[in-house]
Amino acid sequence: MTVDFTKFGLAVVAVGMVFSSASAEMIGNIEFPGFVKHIEKPIPSKESNARDLPQSPIEALKKATRKAPSRFVGWNAENPFMPSFVAKSADDGEKMDSVVGIRLDGSLMSKQVFSFTETGRPLESLNYLPTPDGTAFQYAGHYAYEYDGLGRLISAEQTDVDYPNRSQRIEYGYSGDAELYNLQIAYIMDSEGDWMPYQKGEYTFDANYNTTEEVYYSWGEDVSAWLPAKKTVATYDEMNRVTSYFPYTWDSETNDWGYMSGSADGHRYEYTQNGSYALKADYEWRNNQWIEFYRIVDTYNDAALMVKREHLYWNREKQDWSGAETWGRWDREYFNSYEIYDYDEYGRNTQTNTFTSESGEYVNSYRITTSYGNLENEETEKIAMNGSVKADGTYTPSMKVVQHFNKFGSETYYAAYRDNQGEWAQQSEEIRYMDEYNWFLGGDYYVFVNGERKPDSKERFIYPDDFDPTLGYQTPIEGRQWLGTGIGDTADWKLRTVNNFTWGPRDVMIGYVNYDYMQSDGNKTTGWEMEYDFAANAANIFMWPTNNNQVYYENKTLKSIHYDNPQYWNGNDEWMPEYSYTFTYFYSPRTNTGIEAAELPNGVVETERYDLMGRPLTEPTTGINIVRYSDGSSRKVMVK
After folding, report:
1. What pLDDT does residue 341 have?
2. Poorest-pLDDT segment among 19-33, 347-361, 498-512, 567-581
3. Which of 33, 41, 395, 504 is the most buried (most CB within 10 A)?
């Protein structure tokens, strides 16, 4: 079952720890939408590849080109959907009341009305969409949150009036006064408007709050009971690093935990004193147990440099790690290998030799040699060649890469070559331009066809005349991209896109426009502009996340305008009002929570009480109640 919560546009802004279907965990035919996956197996740190080209100039702005902390101003790099961001403080005394979206043609788009606790935590977001005649907003659903006496989140729900079966609620349970929940129960709404249990997650922690076990269940409607579905077990060392990770799925035939084909493998890890991997072992499920079939063993010298890496497979016949005959997994045959790494006095890798097992003997079959040299302007050259080693020890390189790096370590040049009958044939070339402070100015990228250099793409950033690169942030006013034409007989550049950037105080991006030059002569495609109150520090105002992930990071947002021109490709160069829209943000003092005290005038009595779904209540129920009175008024009342 896939739960879709993408109906509302702006209205779909729930805290995604609960409702984001993108986080669904698939186990065969079992899904766990919205559940927080606590245990994560270690992912080896990936060295950033300086040649991973940005897809556009605006993407390049997100990329740090200086060896210093940097951020892409104008967008929020934080994930607004994680639970830790639910409880932002409100010490500046303001809260956001509502967000109203109106298209530029004047038609209504969406509205949200918010209420918060006295400490600024979210209680309720009422979502509204236009009436069929488009003249007013009508209630379309809500998001609601409940907390216990310790301020812990105990429930979160989302409802959809038009599609009740898309509504979902998750409840959280805790052990004693622990801050971390150890229980999640998910409910979906049935056709009668009642919450029906759907899935459950149970979590076990160690003394350092590492999750040692997570067990997931699905609700068996036929038996009215929770049925086990998935389990993950993990162990940790004294540094809170994962030392083992084993996933299980429930086997209904054996009535025990087993393994489902296609699920993740089991893993075991050991670490060196400096935190590097010393061993990474992989396990497969065979004969109803986890069996180690492959391991990587790393050896380091006194300078913490890896000098050897072994790839070992379990030999089922010999029952050791001497090299696999038929080692088990899919009954395929694999052989052991290892690499030896050499370094110069600066700790730079100069040679890597690969040895593979053949008939029980290790043979040096592959080699990478790397040389370094100093260039002008404090640049360094690195030349790496890799190729095969023959039985007589003769080394024949087949590929070569040449790179240049500036004094900051940023790559400024890259060229790749392949062997062509004893001659180096160049395959590609990339030139990056950096200023003296290491700001990225642009790049030229080429391919080689039959030995001839052809343009592939290029990009440039344009800065204002008074740009000061020492102040900290990269603030270009324009970014351009070209594509190479003439892979055939001619070689030239064709302008592809132009991006205009507008900056406000404190180097905050307040405007962006993209122009397309591929289908038309520079017609506008998309754009936006922001209106901030730069005098107000909004860093501690809780903002409900929106589907455009616009930042509410340092400055109080007053208005955002979003432009779109889906007809740019046929020559249209005007923003289309029916696709463009404005969000307006309204605020009030924090003391107004939207939850009213039940103090009534003389003679006024309660006549009806409902929950947030409009279901009648016979008595007050914990959470937000809607109460109607004899004078015709109604109020939202918080019941503790």
Report:
1. 97
2. 19-33
3. 33
